[in-house]
Write a structure and sequence with these properties.
With 161 residues, this protein is of the alpha+beta class. The protein is built from 7 helices and 4 strands, in the order ααααββααββα. The chain is globular, with a radius of gyration of 16 Å.
């Protein structure tokens, strides 16, 4: 571990879960996955969402906090687009430790949750705003392309109250 990286970890409060999360998500996993980290993280987020189907945006927002992803806010909604900001301590801590922190897992999770809710194909992109220590997530749905739920498990069995 470089001295610069070591000093970033030393600035995290004792017992903080962010250090462990950052070690795994921002150092170990990118080292293992190399150039495919963003794509695999995105699809891993989608797979996690299939395991925990949530009924609405408010519940998704609550689970983002519970999972330690950060605070998710819907900032704007157009007909087929949703704009979210992800912020809070998890985002601030991860960005403080690693400027290249990756938020594609969260983006994939959100995209899949909305796909399950809307019943159409949904994809998302994210952009880190270092100046404001937050992540902009844009979700695009395609109302002409219905989602194929035959490839996922029965949503009624997975719905979380």
């Amino acid at each position: 571990m470089s001295d610069a990286l070591r000093s970033k970890f030393e600035n995290i409060s004792t017992g903080s879960s962010f250090a462990g999360i950052s070690l795994l998500r921002d150092l170990l996993i990118p080292d293992l996955l190399t150039t495919n980290t963003k794509e695999i993280s995105y699809w891993a987020g989608k797979q996690l969402a299939r395991e925990v189907a949530l009924p609405d945006i408010e519940t998704i927002q609550n689970y983002f906090v519970m999972f330690g992803f950060g605070a998710l806010t819907l900032t704007k909604q157009k007909q087929n687009q949703y704009y979210f900001d992800l912020q809070g301590d998890p985002v601030i801590e991860r960005l403080a430790m690693n400027d290249a922190a990756d938020f594609h897992l969260e983006t994939g999770f959100l995209a899949q949750q909305l796909q399950q809710e809307l019943g159409v194909i949904v994809e998302g992109i994210c952009e880190v705003d270092h100046k404001h220590s937050l992540v902009h997530i844009t979700i695009q749905s395609d109302p002409k392309d219905p989602a194929d739920f035959d490839t996922t498990q029965d949503q009624s069995e997975k719905m979380v109250d």
